[in-house]
Design goal:
Distance between the termini: 50 Å
Number of strands: 8
Radius of gyration: 20 Å
Strand content: 15-25%
């Protein structure tokens, strides 16, 4: 009896990940924090700096807004990694490996195109996805394919955000996915796609807060987008 292949589980896992990335990159679709603030009417008013910190940790709606609009810099490293990995798999593995390698290579091409086409914007009140026009002007990206509505979410609606795999951003390495969860999307749509798992009773019992899940491949500067999430007071589970 021949020995079972050791590549089977790995190939299946990578296929599932690649499919999810493909779907997320094209649709830009798709846990969470508690708001708490104790006040004392006799206490002196907080300083602007203290109110900014309060907004970041407790969602203080009275904190001064950051008025600067920031366009996150594009980052082609994820596209390059997938393209190179696809070439290696296609040449190193025969038969099924070639097909899988070709799929990963095509994902790299897709990510390269999307990196040049999409821009992630932080304005005074919301995080937004826009597209680059032929004249380099930023245009509206249309409705979200999965749940409808604008690809624009107010910071006060954020209940969590994260990068996957975790820990890479702090080391200057691009993660694969950017994740965030918000409550602006109508509640009846929260269970679509990955929301069914992220909003399951088990997830809520484990500390998650219900909301609409969004994933997108990290085709932008991860350190910069992390800094903006923090500066704009977007809530995050600790």
């Amino acid at each position: 009896m021949g020995r079972p292949s050791r590549r089977g589980p790995a190939v299946l896992a990578l296929t599932a990940l690649a499919f999810g990335l493909f779907w997320a990159s094209e649709t830009f679709v798709s846990p969470a924090g508690r708001r708490s603030c104790l006040t004392n009417s006799r206490s002196p008013p907080a300083s602007p700096e203290a109110r900014v910190v309060s907004a970041q940790f407790f969602g203080d709606s009275d904190a001064p807004a950051v008025k600067e609009t920031v366009v996150i810099q594009e980052d082609y490293r994820l596209a390059a990694i997938f393209f190179t990995l696809g070439l290696v798999l296609s040449s190193a593995l025969p038969y099924a490996g070639f097909g899988f390698g070709l799929f990963v290579l095509l994902l790299g091409v897709l990510f390269f195109v999307q990196t040049g086409r999409l821009r992630f914007i932080f304005d005074e009140e919301a995080f937004e996805l826009k597209t680059v026009g032929g004249d380099e002007k930023l245009n509206e990206s249309g409705e979200n394919v999965l749940v409808g509505g604008e690809n624009r979410w107010k910071y006060k609606s954020f209940v969590n955000w994260e990068f996957f795999p975790k820990g890479l951003v702090e080391q200057g390495i691009p993660p694969i996915l950017v994740y965030f969860k918000e409550t602006q999307t109508p509640k009846e749509k929260w269970m679509k796609g990955p929301g069914a798992s992220a909003n399951s009773p088990e997830a809520i019992e484990g500390g998650a807060v219900a909301g609409q899940v969004h994933f997108f491949p990290c085709i932008c500067n991860a350190q910069q987008i992390k800094a903006e999430f923090e500066k704009r007071g977007c809530q995050k589970l600790q």
